[in-house]
Amino acid sequence: MNRGPASFQIMSKMLVCGLLRLLIAALAGILLFNGFCFSQTAPKYSFMHQATSAPALSYFDYIIIGGGTAGCPLAATLSQNATVLLLERGGSPYGNPNITNLGSFGQTLSDLSPSSPSQRFISEDGVISARARVLGGGSCLNAGFYTRAETRYVNDVGWDGRLVNESYTWVEKKVAFEPPIKQWQSAVRDGLLEVGVNPYNGFTYDHLPGTKVGGTIFDVDGHRHTAADLLQYANPSGLTVLLHASVHKILFRVKGKKRPTAHGVVFRDAFGKKHRAYLKRGTKNEIILSAGALGSPQMLMLSGVGPSDQLKAHNIKVVLDQPFVGQGMSDNPMNAIFVPSPNPVEVSLIQVVGITNFGSYIEAASGENFAGGADFGMLSPKIGQLSTVPPKQRTPEALAKAIEAMETLEPAVFRGGFILEKIMGPLSTGHLELKNKNPNDNPSVTFNYFKEPEDLQRCVNGLKIIESVIESKAFTQFRYDYLPLPVLLNMTANAPINLLPKHANVSTSLEQFCKDTVMTIWHYHGGCQVGRVVARDYRVLGVDALRVIDGSTFKYSPGTNPQATVMMLGRYMGVRILRERLQG
């Protein structure tokens, strides 16, 4: 069935070239937000408008900054018994058929324009990443995997377990599904069990040690459902959603107050026109930041809440010297091994996960039909993260030459998939700093990947499991017998997946492989952590009428994928806040 050693040299050359293209398709497409958030049929939200239509001045009970994975369920919940303004800097996730379907995501990922649903940033570590800029947030841009946090995580955070479960269920009724498991994912599942990642827990949303099939936010027809769909729960008369509303500052009252009190926001519409929204009178009314792990600490600083030396350096008036804003930034490092396949593979996203007992999660994805459009869509060198053309060499001439070379490759080089590992936690942390006073620009962020030795050891242990799965009996049909693991490791390491220095023959050191091939799985968090920046009720310490509710409050990433928990948190806190309101 497999071709013999005589064709090894030819195939190796093809695969080295093809590896990079397939990794673009798989890692940048499957993991980097495969299929930007566009549902097939747009809900008719009477409360959703362009910010250009907003009055210059308005008043609400709650103002939520960020219509993302947490902001949407939070707004939908609060609208049941209050007036809510939800401000989203991006556009609507609905209405573009090119990115509705599971396999048609190449066109949008190639879009690096200012209006793209994804905003690229490069950490100071040299890892290329992205943040959401669309209603629905990261749930519009991820691999679709849906799984709850582990019970221990819920207990450690101090959440009410019963309300947590009710909130997860509330989310799942709209956006979560059981995925169909085909050949590649079945082989990964069986391989994990064969090498000892037991027991088999079947299909479940729960985080359980062993191997399981998780949920997905793609329905049976391959259409994405996102946090924006949770706005279907909203009370239309209680909610106003403004799109392309870029918040520039939270306003505080200081005079006559024991502590600074948030009372309004300044935002600009797509034409740059300034608008102001204020809280109505009432002690229960609040502004809530849900702008994500980069956006929320950035907005606090721009509004004068943060490290005073940094604020003064940007000529920002200090409202509250809060040195922990922007601290504790973490990103779960991801490392993958590409596996070229002698047989056709289905297009699959993250469906199966192996939850090990040493803190590493093993997942996989596959496909051979990621190319699309005149410039290869997802495989296009223009996309960037895994392009064959290094970032600093992407001139128009170099990109055109790379695309022309791709046209000569055989279809076989686009066939295969990868198995990846993501470490739990992580323990390593970094920080975020302002670059300027423009809220639309990315701040500077450092994650310090593998700074803590335990993180590095978890990566090494995870890679050993991946190697065993690739060599397992269950995976035989998806590997070439004459491509040993050292070749696969070196092929993967040769891809320009980040801006870090490369080392030769990294197959001799899994530690070096981890460091050289580190990528993001887009689960970064921190910057407004509980106990440092916010209290357990998510109120910002040292000021009144302001909370932060999103992944920036996390110390560790929950479960194998945080999106379910971030959506749950929006609902959970919405219920808690309304209870407080009704109790007077």
Automatic annotation (TrEMBL):
Disulfide bonds: 459-514
SUPFAM superfamilies with a match to the protein in the record: FAD-linked reductases, C-terminal domain, FAD/NAD(P)-binding domain
Cofactor: FAD
Keywords from the UniProt entry: Disulfide bond, FAD, Flavoprotein, Signal
Keyword Transmembrane helix: no
Source superkingdom: Eukaryota
Name the UniProt record assigns to this protein: Glucose-methanol-choline (GMC) oxidoreductase family protein
Upper taxonomic lineage: Eukaryota, Viridiplantae, Streptophyta, Embryophyta, Tracheophyta
